[in-house]
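Q: Could you fold this chain for me?
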Amino acid sequence: MAEYGKRRAGLASVAKSADRCTSGRSGAHLMQHAAMPLTREELDHIAASTLAHYNTRAEEYWQGTRDHDVSQNVATLLRHIEGVAPLSILDLGCGPGRDLKTFSELGHRAIGLEGAPQAAALARAHSGCVVWEQNLLALDLPTAEFDGVFANAVLFHVPSSELPRVLLALHATLKSDGVLFSSNPRGQGQEGWQGERFGAYHDLATWRRYVAAAGFTELEHYFRPDGLPREQQPWLASAWRAV
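A: Sure. Below is the predicted structure, expressed as structure tokens.
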């Protein structure tokens, strides 16, 4: 409990480190700002609106992303896990189940977590795996259950003020020396609404501070898509070990 308290204090310090200024991103209601506390009503609205966007477009999202190649990300997570297969993997924000199916076909015990009911139903149908219906701002996860957490294109939907709490929950659900993989669209601290979805876009230094403060140590990071100039690599991928 003392260690948990230290991590909470460290994360609170990180959450206060951003400066306040407006974003120049065209057509988006985004701001760069300190991680201001949000009310329960504001958090509920963020979760409901973002999930409703994905829920009403679940089939469209499946058709549009089912062939996306994220094998580099899958391989990165699995390469860093030190356990013996079959591994226990939590696919956080699994959507319609593309990556959940991949982990299952590789012989691992994969469980999905998805807050949009229509996407969760598709994930079950496509993968044959168990899918928990939870949203990121109300996680209820078992302790020391998973060898790895695969958070592909999901954690950027967590407001900065809530990110410390979410990262601590992910740390707690990992086994000792378990691995967190994340891939998020990167930015310079912009945060807010783009249409119906809420997003927070961190640079590498800020993301490192948040995740390290939650008790993880960095294993590697890279930018995607692979092989392109940095300005054409909007995705920041990173792997972290729970210590």
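A (continued): The CA atoms of residues 110 and 146 lie 9 Å apart.
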